[in-house]
Amino acid sequence: MSTTTPETPGTPGTRTKELPRLGVGRLTLRNLAAYRRRIAGLMVAVLLGTAFLSGALILSDTLKSSVTGLIRDNGAGTDVVVRNATDVTDQPGTSRAGIPAGVADAVRGVPGVAAAEPVVVGYGQLVGKDGDMLTGNGPRLAGNWIGDPALNPYKLANGHAPRTADEVVVDRASAKQGHLKVGDRITVLTPAPVPVTVVGIATFGDADAFGGSSYTAFSLDGARAHIARDPGQVTSVSVRLNGQPDKAAQESAAAAIQRVLPPGVQATPGSEATQEQVDAVSDGFLTIFRTFLSAFAAIALVVAAFSINHTFSVVTAQRMRQAALLRALGASRRQIRAQALAEALVIGVTASLLGLAAGAGLAVGLKELFSAFGFAFPISGMTFRGQVAVIVLPVGIVVTLVSALVPAVRGSRVAPIAALRSTAAEDAGIPRRRTVGGSVLSAAGIAVAATGSAAWVFGIGALLCLAGVLMVAPVVVRFLGGLLTAPFARLGAGPMLARGNVLRSPRRTAGAATAMVVGIAVVTVVAIFAASLKQGAEGETRDTVTGDFVVATSTAGWASSGHSPELTRRIGRLPGVDAVVGMQRGNALVDGASKQVMAVDTGRLDRVLDLGLDAGTATGLGPDQIAVADSVASDRGWRVGTAVPVVYPDGARASLTLAGIYTRTTVTGDYLIDRQAWAPHSVADVDAMAVVGLADGAAAKQVKAEITKAAAAYGNPPVRDRDAYIDASLAMVDQFVTVVYVLLALALLIALGGIANTLALAAHERRRELGLLRAIGAERGQVRASLRWESAFVAVLGALTGLALGAFLAWAAVGVLAGDQPVPYRVPAGQLAILLASGALGGLLAGTRPAARAAKQDILGAVSAP
């Protein structure tokens, strides 16, 4: 029988008894209550990060629910869809080529068919009474009014259905925008201008419109005359079956209908056709949008994690004596760790719950933010799924616990003997192994990021760089901080004291600035990368467009429009015009893959465009020829003379000969064919833009006036000179970058919150020092100034480090992500200067409250503090 002899706690080689009554939970609650102000700062960081994630997921789910709901409502009454069998694109909102109009009569004779309505859908841009186009955030559609109420998702709110070819029904949203009423005489561009009379106003179910799109309904004869490319064809046939058919009945009916259809026409169950559209939207735009917002939520959480980690580190350092006393009383390391992690758990759970709730409000704010920049979403209300809580709560809790883990372990290793002596809360030294390790990681990251040729390689290099920079940050603080703050020390006692505090503990200063480094680095990468791509696109567009004017419809939000080829032809006949080239976008299967192609009047191409030919020619292409970008030719191994298989939207197949390879793609895209080859097979005859070249000696101002006059009958599409066109084409980039900046601002707010929290902790730790300063004559204003200056110094040091890191990573990113296209590296000095100034100002503001509280403390109480 053996006995265990109690050993002195902390003695090497011995086991320490745990205090049997040391309640970890009770101690945790007492510490949370005692340090509630510090805890509040930690909770705010977690709350903001989880709120962003929650808001992003809620907005994404709401948008998906709304859009897919609209799609399902649109096809709710259709049991079978009869359409062209050829599908050349999975892009939502695009129509297939037409089918013979007589198909509807054949379908009506199939047993079980209650109704078969021909459907014509195409381009239809409403022009208001003032002569300008009515724009929106969706496609501009026109078609025929469907008489069967079960097959028509639109319902008349006012007026009657169209009866003649020049009567139309418009959606209520467009009527409100254009102040239209029954009886008004307006124009519809189909794309040719068609004068019509508004005889009815309709709603899409209970909504004013189908999302952000517009809809103009003609009679069937009017739609076939004005919208269909061929009056003998319709877009599809919507079929309603007898009774209430389920999915199996729809499939059976589709098979029966298929037997009476001509080759190239297919019958698809209505549920399947609807699901195809839902999948196209979900797998495309909605997935990209969700990923986009989630990326910013991840950035906010990473910044929050650094802020939490540093705050816990400072708190742990300040509690070393408390931990040592507990160890001396018999507490084990496990209990010390458990107590610290229990605090983190309480903070993580509470803040994550609050963040989950706040996400609903943030989702509304994000929706309004996008609307303010022209990206309005067709949603009302918010959708909350339980899956959001399943994602947000664990993420917030895990981030908090992981951030607190290292400080908790460090705090548990304190020796009990430390309770008997007074020591600094934190070692001011910089371990050599940390400096060496950080230098090695930084060098490795620089090498990988600079030489990598793939995005994932660049990502690894960026992470190595970030880790290395954060490890060597104390050294940077000691040297860069000394140089930066030296001139300010001469401005008075406040800056001088702040400089001493910043340099006295470089590890703490670096830790406080870490979140700022990450946030500023991300913003810098975005700013430089966007500026570089914008300059590259601007330079390439300027080199490509050699014509004098461009006629292109303005883009509003995510909707784009066009104009009639008739306008392009009219411009070509104007005096002073040497050449005009119209360009039309479409989709086709090129070498088996869906691609966007540009159909161009290539006979006059070289007069207004310079595509930077690498081989062959792109001018005067025949109906059996194609030109492609050099990146495409390189990837596919194509050369001039290669046979390229193409399937057109109507199902026609062709083998086109590669006639030219070009390098400039910003205007024409990657695939270029002549309009002679495209015209017989296209779905919509709409010019996306037209480039105009003037004859020698022509008066540019006069010719522009004539073009503008001609365009008035076609909805007044803007007529811009080359510089104005380039500015307009890049406007969307500026809007997008502004949205990104606003989203990243939350990460910077979290970083500033971390600085404020650290400063409050530092003021509490130095209360005796501050009390002595007050006792020897320092004024409250000088104490406040010293802490505000210290906050500003920390913020600027973090911002400068982040700017340097971000500038390098942006340089590497431009080289990797730009691919084969040469993109200039541009540093937007003005934007980065504003970013640095904002960081400094934010640092001053972050230090205001901690400084005010420190200056108000009682002198005697502060001097007598331990």
Automatic annotation (TrEMBL):
Which InterPro entries did the record assign?
Answer: ABC3_permease_C (IPR003838), Macrolide_Exporter_MacB (IPR050250)
Query: What are the transmembrane regions?
Result: 39-59, 292-317, 338-364, 384-406, 440-473, 510-533, 739-763, 792-817, 829-847
Superkingdom as given in the UniProt entry = Bacteria
Q: What is its main location?
A: membrane
Q: Which Pfam families match?
A: FtsX
Boundaries of every ABC3 transporter permease C-terminal domain copy? 295-413, 742-858
Q: Where in the cell is it found?
A: Cell membrane
- Which UniProt keywords are listed? Cell membrane, Membrane, Transmembrane, Transmembrane helix
Its membrane topology = Multi-pass membrane protein
Query: Has keyword Cell membrane?
Result: yes
Family statement: Belongs to the ABC-4 integral membrane protein family.
Protein name, UniProt field? ABC transporter permease
Organism name: Yinghuangia aomiensis
Q: What is the lineage of its organism?
A: Bacteria, Bacillati, Actinomycetota, Actinomycetes, Kitasatosporales
